[in-house]
Amino acid sequence: MHTFRIGTLASRAALNPPTIRYYEEVGLLRKARRMGSGQRVYDNTDVERLTFIKRCREFGFSIEQVKQLVALTADPSSACMDARTLAAEQLEQVRVQLGELRALEQSLEELVGSFDSRCAGGPGPDCVILGDLARS
Amino acid sequence: MHTFRIGTLASRAALNPPTIRYYEEVGLLRKARRMGSGQRVYDNTDVERLTFIKRCREFGFSIEQVKQLVALTADPSSACMDARTLAAEQLEQVRVQLGELRALEQSLEELVGSFDSRCAGGPGPDCVILGDLARS
DNA sequence: CTTGACCCTCAAGTTACTTGAAGGTTTACG
DNA sequence: CGTAAACCTTCAAGTAACTTGAGGGTCAAG
Fold it and tell me: How high does pLDDT run on average in chain B?
């Protein structure tokens, strides 16, 4: 089986080498085998593992949640429904964030709009809006 | 003019005292006057200042951006258009984040959906989906 | 055999705070 | 007036999830 070092793994999984070392350090990835010189050695199964982790991170799971998912995959008996639960919880969080961000978008639109309409004459000495922001 | 201590300021601006000290430390808030005993003293103008800062943070501006906005309010000559620019940039960032989050929402919906349809029979020993996540 | 790309570890920086320890101050009550 | 609760102080460390940098070893090609 053919092996490679951390840089290759990094480019295959589209992560930086320090990130991979970090994942190993926090226990998300198990300790890599080492060459005599101390350099880490990986193979294709590690690409899969890391791809799984990266996918999960892109889904917005925290490191701790990904650890749980990794543990679930090691114990397939009840893995499926537990993973579904995690995913559903994550989806719920994302929707809350979406709601907040949409509200923020609207407020910012209004803010920009009020600059446009009320300060349109150019840089006046007394910007009403900056003053407004300070009042309760 | 009546004055008060940090706890009162904190509750009026809806922030925690350590946060206010932190803002002072990083130069977002100027150094507070002190009583003989060393305790910080504030008045109503500080409530306004802090409210302004909190508003801006809620708009998603970073501490550095808020510093710029605070500086702008001190120099009202060109404040208005510069502030508009900052707000517009912030709006742009928010829209990018919104796009990413929407894509994430959809992916998670699909993920949850596939757990429902393909693992519906209960916790099977071989969850196809967890396997799928690992493949490139 | 040397040069450049790659690897190692350890420490510190990032953002925007929060939490905790150890101790001084103020205020309210009896 | 005493004392206990509530509040204040500073400084240090913790949080998430890495990134960046220093200082130094290793590997592959020409």
Answer: 83
